[in-house]
Request: fold
Amino acid sequence: MAVVIGVGNYILGDDGFGIHAIKRMMEMDEFKGIKIVDAMTNPTMLLEAMDGEDKAVIVDAIDIGQRDVAVFRFNPNVEDFPSDVMLSIHDMHFKDLIMMARGVYDLPEEIVVVGVKPERVEVGLELSEKCMRHLDEVIEIVKRELNLSPSQKKGMSC
Reply:
């Protein structure tokens, strides 16, 4: 099975993007029966959510050097994972977290990270207008990752 994990701090504006996204997914019929977890910024909760799953889709706001608030999707292969990407797991680098957890947790072979570059990380419950505009796009990417997209269910290509 697959799990969708929202990562971020809900009270820090765009840093809460992953949490906003999963809250919306929880209300959508397409995601009924899909395990969705709010891991906040807690590394242990992130690892526990992935434990024993076949695939993990992590939704977060990450600044990976994009010029604007752009949507991204990458598969963090441990060998070539960007050295400066921290996700919202502020305690340690994501690559180090995954390397240390393998063997302790039964982590999925496929881990996909989807999200946006944050525009504003400051106290507040609302996403910036730029991040809000990309929310539906990110949810569509997650649907495709989980084969929930109608075009993929019917075997059609875009």
Remarks:
- Confidence is low (pLDDT under 50) at residues 152-158.
